């Protein structure tokens, strides 16, 4: 396979997928013995370590998504009988069960005398990096983490103001209270923030009230998560 043909395949992939493709792997199919060849990249695309699999028509079809398998099987049959290239956007399932969306682009493979020996082509992996559902789930989780961090930072700021300590000392104090009372750091911070808010400005300035609330906040904090360590956020 020439360097020019590889570059052309990359250009085709970018045009069809609307961006830089994740993977491109080549294949060859020989009519004489119905033999397949897969590049290392194509083997990896299907979930195999290069050199550990010998592709056959049965193996090729076994990796097709059930909803696409019959149509791809018909395409392969037409390729063999009519000696025509095949090309179709469809889904494959790799050895881990992950579904990939691919585009197959191919043309005839000619010998030195011009005879058609088989078909050669490329699989272009155009699987979206993240589905909308996955993206939404990650966004929601990031928002939760940000919210948890925010309440910890809020309480750290209160401790720094009331006790005149720096940020590290404030965090160490929260962490110690969390560990001593076996309660999540985030849950402790939420309880402390609620308690401190109820004091109002005058109450916060009264150190004795603040001390009592701080030391007893962990007792009032109810941690519904039973699989996390006390310092988890």
Keywords:
233 residues; alpha+beta; Beta-Lactamase; 2 domains; five-stranded antiparallel β-sheet
Question: Can you describe what's shown?
Answer:
The protein is of the alpha+beta class. The protein has two domains: 21-134, Beta-Lactamase, CATH 3.30.450.20; 146-225, no CATH class. 54% of the residues lie in helices and 17% in strands. It has a five-stranded antiparallel beta sheet, with helices on both faces. A hairpin with a 5-residue loop joins strand 3 and strand 4 (99-110).
Task: Produce a short descriptive summary.
It comes from Mycolicibacterium goodii. The protein is of the alpha+beta class.
Q: Uncertain runs with pLDDT below 50, 5 residues or more?
A: 1-22, 222-233
CATH architecture of the largest domain, by name, is 2-Layer Sandwich
Outline the biggest β-sheet: 5 strands, antiparallel
Order of helices and strands: HEEHHHEEEHHHH
Number of domains: 2
Which structural class do the helices and strands define?
alpha+beta
* CATH homologous superfamily (4th level) name of the largest domain: PAS domain
Average pLDDT over all residues: 77
Number of helices: 8
């Amino acid at each position: 396979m020439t360097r020019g043909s590889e570059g052309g395949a990359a250009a085709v992939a970018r045009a069809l997928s609307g961006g830089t493709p994740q993977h491109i792997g080549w294949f060859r199919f020989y009519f004489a013995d119905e033999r397949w060849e897969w590049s290392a990249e194509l083997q990896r695309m299907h979930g195999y370590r290069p050199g550990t699999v010998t592709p056959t028509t049965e193996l090729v079809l076994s990796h097709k998504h059930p909803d696409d398998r019959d149509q791809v099987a018909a395409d392969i049959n037409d390729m063999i009988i009519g000696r025509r290239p095949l090309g179709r956007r469809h889904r494959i399932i790799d050895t881990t069960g992950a579904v990939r969306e691919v585009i197959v682009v191919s043309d005839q493979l000619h010998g030195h005398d011009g005879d058609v020996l088989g078909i050669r082509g490329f699989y272009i992996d155009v699987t979206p990096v993240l589905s909308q559902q996955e993206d939404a789930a990650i966004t929601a989780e990031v928002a939760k983490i940000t919210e948890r961090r925010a309440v910890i930072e809020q309480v750290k700021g209160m401790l720094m103001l009331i006790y005149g300590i720096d940020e590290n000392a404030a965090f160490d104090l929260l962490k110690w209270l969390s560990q001593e009372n076996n309660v999540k750091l985030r849950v402790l911070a939420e309880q402390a923030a609620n308690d401190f808010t109820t004091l109002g400005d005058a109450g916060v300035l009264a150190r004795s009230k603040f001390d009592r609330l701080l030391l007893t906040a962990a007792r009032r904090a109810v941690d519904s998560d039973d699989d996390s360590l006390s310092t988890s956020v």
